[in-house]
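Can't paste images in this forum, so I'm doing it all in text. The chain is below; anyone willing to post the predicted structure tokens underneath?
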Amino acid sequence: MTASKRSFFICLVLAAASLINPAIAAEKPCVAIAPPKAQLGQGATGQDVSAPVQNMLISYLSGPMLEVVNLQSRLPAQLEAEAKQSGCSYMLSTDVEYKKKKSWGKALSIGAGVISSALPYAGVGGGVGTFVAATTAANVANTAANVQMQQESMEKLTAAQGTIRKGDSIALSYNLKSISNGKKIIGNDLQTKAEQDGQDLLIPMIEQTATEVFNKLTQ
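Text version of the structure:
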């Protein structure tokens, strides 16, 4: 199964989950994601991939079982204050390093952009049938938007990784922590080495990161 088909399937599963158990929206955890700084390559030839990376994380994590909020502050103190004001219990930060064969490139701090996908409980009248119909319509719209955003981001990341050569590596590490006490909830260090020129190394690691975070927060 290709990455795009797998991502589309994940979105559909999340949309269906809300119909099976609509009350889940009221219980869903909220994760705030730090702003990205991401570049593949170095200097003037490097490509800024912060937007597509953040959009990929958004598309994976957003849905009826999680609420995702972006953080825009860059200074650490400002970022912590904004995280506390977000109303979320958790903050996700991600670092990426691009290794061109034998020399490490600059470290990249990666987070995700903005989205909050609460389900439309307020203002829905007419009984269960009307509620389910409204919920279905909202989920279809959210799913379609997420799939389109994800597809566009995949295309940009694929193009940016066209400069990767056999032997290059990308390392991605993430940390999910409690906003209230700073305690680490989960983290991982991922690394993939290119076996051929132009190989997609980053998208599978973004997917793995989102999957591990999602599983931890919804277990």
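Helices lie at 3-20, 24-27, 50-61, 76-85, 127-160, 202-218. The chain has one domain: 3-218.
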